[in-house]
Amino acid sequence: MSAQDGEAPKAEVKKQLVINAFVESCSGHQSPGLWRHPKDQSSRFNDITHWTELAKKLEKAKFHGIFIADVLGGYDVYNGPKNLDAAIRSGAQWPVNEPLAVIPAMAAATESIGFGVTVATTYEQPYHLARRLSTIDHLTNGRVGWNIVTGYLDSAARNLGFTEQPAHDERYAVAEEYLEVMYKLWESSWRDDAVVLDRDRGVYTEPSRVREINHVGKHFSVPGPHICQPSPQRTPVILQAGTSSAGKNFAAKHAEAIFVAGHSPSVVAKNTKEIRALAKGFGRNPQNIKFLAMICPVLGRTEEEARQKFEEYASFGSIEGALALFGGWTGINLAEYGDDEELRHVQSNAIRSAVEAWSKSTPGVAKWTKHTVAQHIIIGGLGATVVGTASHVADEFERWVSEADVDGFNIAYALFPSSFDDVIELLLPELRSRGLYWDGYAAPKGTYRENIYGLPGQSGLLPDHPAQGYRWRAESNDK
Question: Is the pTM of this model over 0.85?
């Protein structure tokens, strides 16, 4: 029966957005040079209260999580090779601290907000990292996610036992086996009820409920067992950001949330569609993968106020820092090109393809030079930067959901913490009024996984996740 036949049309069910703050243990992060702005406090990242205050602020506003990026080396491509001067001088993600260390402090100051942390698989043995992440999952009561990266900076590789980065697809082959080891340690090494704390018998853990994993592979040999008892989630929420061919397959199989970046929804939509299709081949429900787009909103109560803010912020940005970041992200040294050289006409396919994508999303730019590129990423980096009122930014969020099929956003800041304050005061009320954002945590004091999926009680991997089969359950008689 149609609506014309008397049936009321069904109301459109809108996605409830997942929203994380996107930060790094450095100053400026995605907005190089803005540490110079008198209101910016990002240079306080060495102070533990910088992190605890942020966590309390964001939890009060009901953010799902805090997504902490990381790099293990400096951005040394611009004016290079092996030249860190631009990054060091401008403070472009330099200096940068280790990200895991601040999470227990933030967890102690909060109850429900989650923490996604970036750790590379290329430079650390899985047995050691499994222990570190299990420990953090315990200390946060199950509020940790692991953003799996394979690394992309030669400067990191040179300091960690390599002359340069291993080949791209080889890094993903290593990561695939790495995950297999991690799943075995986290899910299969201890039975759910292994720890009994039987004071009468003097038995802390039943030995029959702990077993070796005896993994022998091409890259790793790990007998086990895992040295930590099962944590609240066992496996942390699996986050991933790769959109190469190898990265897409890896994400489609393993990721519960995927971080995507692009200056327009059209740039992201193809990857989203392809990865969801690939997920079906691994027996997964494609909608169980949450795509989170990086976005940097510059908000004002009027369009004019927002535009003035943006122009003010941009005046503090560092062109040199932006070019240093671009070099690290792409491997392209723009110092080799003249100040007025049109980059859409150079021989490098990598440069032409990157600039063409930007020119389509920003058609008003007459000429794309290296300074145009720097200005384009000086606030918000490689993600979208949206300038306007809360209504306008919310419209853009809805456009990204509609056109790119994303499930939420990792919000980068221009100024710390002012950008987050504006999101909390102006944007979140607008999103809530449109039915796009929750009023409270689905699982107060629950795990990151429960709150990302909105499924209280779902602390472990979803039933359709490929690693679910590793789980050693209390009712199992497996030895």
Answer: yes
